[in-house]
């Protein structure tokens, strides 16, 4: 674990005193943030700004240098880094040096990629408080009355509470009350100016803040601690133990550490709620995503958890965008199959999900269809059931059989590429179309000017080989990378896919309103240079894992049914603010818990150390607070007789914990693992 | 003898039983004298020096348990003179016994039925208690608690202008503070703030909040007290930190508030602006208990009452104004159905919440027009005030009137929302038979509603306001007299003849003279103002002077001769000037040599204001176009006015100079 020291940030250069002061303050304010992994914002970004913005004084001073005729001349700048989730509570201040001509200044937050030719708050995923009218703008061109106006000499602060996802502003050290709720993650501090002469200075911790943010942080720390302390727990003996075991177990299950979970269940004599096969399935999907084989992942998801992506069209879109990127670099099966480079070709795997036959939503059918699937994969039996324009083509076309169960490799020749064989190609893979992709398909016929079967012919032209069984060697089997692996047909397929994606985006747009994130994602995909696609930059990788995590989370949610109202304590246990707890203590707690987790193989404990502070923290805290003695050690240790302090508690039912875990996992996974558990294969890029 | 030996055992059993069983405790004070005797027995045993310490301690414990019962229990114990007996017990060398006595005393003194005075009847008690403060954490806790309950009286401050945040001290309140202060309470209690026991710290803090309230002497001392190298205000601010228990935050905010209001801390001090005020606003938030919200709002209202800058800051902090509108949502409709207990709780606090919110609104809107606008724009604000005016709870009515008063200072609101909601109706109702404290604020509000640009003026007049206001001028209460005459003055401004006549009739000449000789300069000023307003426009002047001329001239002479300040004399000269503007009324001045001499005197007065006022008078008398001006000019020349005018036309004061020149021109024409 790298020390988040000042030096590490500056690449080891000696720091001037003010820089040291900044580093010290940041460390004190956000002790839980690992700045090597998730750097804190320290200045405005000279790259992430509109040209009407000028920066000076170490990129802390912002001035306006446009015409400032109307709102089209608005300009914003984002900080160098997004606010790390581990902050728990984040705060920065902006001093109005000059209000310029009209004082149209906006202070706030925005996600990466939000248009900079605007004031913060006007667009989706953008939030701002404006000086001229004192209104707050929550992703909308029209503001809400919020606070007083602000002008030259005022110091405006913006506090993001990542625990409850709210934001409030301060003016000259006075809190103005909640401005926004339900904020998304990964927002950047942002300021926007609109008329000449406007100058503002940022304080990301360079100087003491006017508002007493540390006092606010203290309040939340106390709040959470008291929630934990007051959390009701039955005083029957062993309940603590059960609870802790459930937490560990649900964590392991959630992350798919299947054999560890089994071993843990065996040792602790508990049962795992999810079936092993389901865990394995989820794991497989995750592996596919991580390996860049998004198309397969989508299909597997659709097959195994029908309806899931249907209910999450945005997730599906995200995945497809990713798939597109993967196509560009030649990893995704859609194009990879063209390259025929896989050493162990076992299966044909030709189609993107969008081209695959569609299904309604009846889950049982899919599974029953699985019976037919082995034969389908041979391309013989199912032809009769397939009709080219049927809205709901034969169930057989989508197979639930896992790839490993039908390992026979099938080559498709051109002769196979008829309407009917189309379904067979798919049948070997697990594929379940969602309603979204149905719509997409319909749209696809026209703008592209090609009929469905023409596409199929193209698909059918090539030999398609693919493996589905996860295999290390195959994952890393692209030694030299070119656009789509250098294959012309694959490139065409990619372009085709891109169009489909565009259509899907438009579709979503119609249904759910504008989504700039989507647009951005799409743009990223379209503009992606081959080189860029190859050398997966770190941030990209992270975003990438995010997609995987989101999928996994969604899967878990799908399995667990609706979110149960989890108790706050659990929320604390599994949601971000680890800084609220001393991390070493959390780790110590885990080590103490290790007897219970002794069954975890080497490395597991370590992984857990990285991810578990969240729930261990609660335990540890409670223990430390209520009885700082060997009794506490016993309490934390999962085994042994427990002396339970009344009224103190750490978590709740495994179900609640698990569901919450799924939210936490986004953060967990987005931080590259330090050590991979034995169950999960090592992620790519490590 | 056997009985006495047995007693300790029985006693300890009894104390347990009494603590747990209200039923038994109440039975002890059965109307049946036989049973009350048991309590008396305990007191007797406690008093016996010969009884063993254990026995006496147990007695005190049992009595303490009894005192925890109903108020009737406490009354019965008080009737048995329990307090002197327990105080006597404090002289014992045994700490355990002392603690038991103190605990019992604490319980008795915290009961609302116990008169605080009982603590102060014996002058030796307070010093002894101070000495006991060092004995143990229990003595510390109990004694502080006794002090903080015996430093105030449970009724409301009689002065209606103050929004007193809690039951207040009155006549003897400051005495208690002073007694405690003189016995070194500040020094003795200050170090308890660093006690390891939370209860001790808390009680010490409460003690300070009571001691500092409206007491500059105590407050000034507190500012400079050092505890462990830290000044008391610093310690209070530390106790304000957000992770401290709410009770502690609230009480230390009170201490700082009282110290600030008593002048010991400046209102622009960061301790107040950045710490105390935000903490109090937080106390008003939905997350707090209802009691805390009430106390928070009342204390905040008190803190910001007189400082416009603090009012501005409070108005933008954490959406306070809309946060306060939640105070009116109790009992909530949900609680009524789902939870009887909750409903009961809500109902109990509903009045308190409303009055606290009104009070805070009143303070917020006291000075700043923008804030007033924001308040009135809050959902249903005017309806809430109108409803509040007719609530059964006098506390709510009082603070609703206060709020209305505060908002009535806005010209815009008088013309708009006040008119739309016909607030004058409930206000006039409040004015009927209300206690003085309500009357004072209500009549102040009425003053504003009677301003000439207020559309409510007419309907108020029609509903018999004149009679009511005239009766107010006869009140014993000075504030009511001022408000009454003030309202009449406003009413008379540019009024029609009929209203003026009504006022004069309603007030009666005797009362008018009574007011002119009032000891209070405010009353005098407003009465003169009323006269001046009555004596405007020529027909009115002549009309009034024809009926009341003699008395008015008398009064004017009296005042001009009396020992009064410049403003009063100026006002009086202005009345003369008005009279001089009449047609027939002029003669009253011209025929009165005494008055003419006085005018002449004031023309050469050292004060320019008075000179100017006298000049107005002369100008009106010598104005050319009017009938008989020639004679008047001649007469005035004879008494030497023209010479003075010549002198004044050389004056360095441009106003005076102009006026004199204009007057001289009248002579030339």
Question: In DSSP terms, counting alpha (H) and pi (I) runs of 4 or more, how many helices of chain A?
Answer: 25
Q: Which class do the helix and strand fractions of chain A yield?
A: alpha+beta
Fraction in helix of chain A: 40-55%
> In which order are the strands of the major sheet of chain A placed?
1-4-13-6-7-8-9
Oligomer: heterodimer
The largest chain-to-chain contact, stated as pair and per-chain residue counts, equals: A-B, 16 and 13 residues
CA-CA gap between termini of chain B = 119 Å
Strand percentage of chain B, roughly?
under 5%
Characterize the largest beta sheet of chain B: strand count, sense, and whether it forms a barrel: 2 strands, antiparallel
List the helices and strands and how they pair.
The complex is a heterodimer of chains A (686) and B (669).
Chain A: H1 6-9, H2 17-29, E1 44-49, E2 53-56, E3 61-64, E4 75-79, E5 89-99, E6 106-111, E7 126-130, E8 135-138, E9 144-145, E10 155-161, E11 166-171, E12 174-180, E13 187-193, E14 198-203, H3 213-230, H4 239-254, H5 258-268, H6 276-290, H7 294-304, H8 308-311, H9 313-329, H10 333-339, H11 363-377, H12 419-427, H13 435-445, H14 452-460, H15 472-475, H16 488-512, H17 516-527, H18 530-534, H19 538-560, H20 568-574, H21 583-597, H22 604-611, H23 613-626, H24 630-636, H25 654-670
Antiparallel strand pairs in A: 1-4, 2-3, 3-14, 4-13, 5-10, 5-14, 6-7, 6-13, 7-8, 8-9, 10-11, 11-12
Chain B: H1 2-20, H2 22-28, H3 33-47, H4 53-67, H5 71-79, H6 82-89, H7 95-109, H8 117-120, H9 125-132, H10 137-149, H11 173-182, H12 185-190, H13 198-212, H14 216-223, E1 226-227, E2 230-231, H15 232-239, H16 246-261, H17 270-283, H18 290-304, H19 308-316, H20 320-325, H21 333-338, H22 340-364, H23 369-377, H24 381-389, H25 394-407, H26 411-415, H27 417-420, H28 424-431, H29 436-449, H30 457-462, H31 465-472, H32 478-492, H33 497-507, H34 509-516, H35 521-534, H36 538-561, H37 566-581, H38 586-590, H39 593-603, H40 608-622, H41 629-638, H42 641-648, H43 654-668
Antiparallel strand pairs in B: 1-2
Helix pairs in contact in B: 1-2, 1-4, 3-4, 4-7, 6-7, 7-10, 10-13, 13-16, 14-16, 15-16, 16-17, 16-18, 17-18, 18-22, 22-25, 24-25, 25-29, 28-29, 29-32, 31-32, 31-33, 32-35, 35-37, 36-37, 37-40, 39-40, 40-43, 42-43
